[in-house]
Amino acid sequence: MLDYLRLEVRRTLRDAGFVIGGIAMPVLMYLLFTNLGAADGSWKTGAMVGMAGYGAVGSALNTGGGVAEDRAIGWLRQLRVTPMTPRQVVVGRALTGSVTVLPAIVAVLAAGGLLNGVRLAAWQWAAIAVLLWLGSVPFTLLGLGNGYRLTGQTTGVANMACNLGLAVLGGLWFPIALFPAWLRSVSAYTPTYRFAQLGTSVAEGRAPAPGAVAMLAFWLLVFGSYAVLSYRRSGRAG
């Protein structure tokens, strides 16, 4: 499974679309949003966490695109006849998604510290990176579920819609304080809002709220079940 993991990571990082959309775009959006007009330190820090989360979610969902391509070329059928169990295949893909979210997180955090003057303690930088990395797992599973269930083209559209919709609703682009009251209520139940809370809490010097962890765990179960059901369906269809 380690060989499979290395293969998938290399293939993903060589994808120009992934590098531009998953790494460069969040950095550019972060710098743009925080350097138009006057922006105080708290906004630059909060936006940094939000855009790092946005890049992580996009990279995690991108894992599903590779799955859909594998189905189209028959690679998934080849994997089914190898000694690898279905669980190992899914875990390998999930680990790929977990690894490939790191460049997006690190790139945005580096832009915040080096270009925008964000100042945090060393432990805060490390904790934000680790929590965003771990918190991205539910979105990897969502992308896998889409990839196993949908065609390649449809997977791309579905993942883009999920990424943009969850980013906006979850306040990764703009603070939810700007939302009307009814939309703030909806946002509180989104996985992206709770995902961003992991980082913003640490940036403010606090531990993540138990409610945020519990809500992310709930979405982990939901998206994990979706990925498993989609994988089983793809096996029957194959």
How are helices and strands ordered from N to C?
A: HHHHHHHHHHHH
Distance between the termini: 22 Å
Helix run count: 12
What do the pLDDT scores average to? Answer: 85
Q: Give the number of domains.
A: 1
Helix coverage percent of residues? over 70%
Which strand-content bin applies to the residues?
under 5%
Give the oligomeric state.
single chain
- Regions with little confidence, pLDDT below 50 for 5+ residues: none
Number of extended strands: 0
Radius of gyration: 18 Å
The shape is globular
For the sheet with most strands, the description reads: none
Structural class comes to: mainly alpha
Main attributes of the structure:
238 residues, mainly alpha, 12 helices, globular
Describe it for me?
The chain contains 12 helices and no strands. It is mostly helical. It has one domain (2-237). The relative contact order is 0.14.
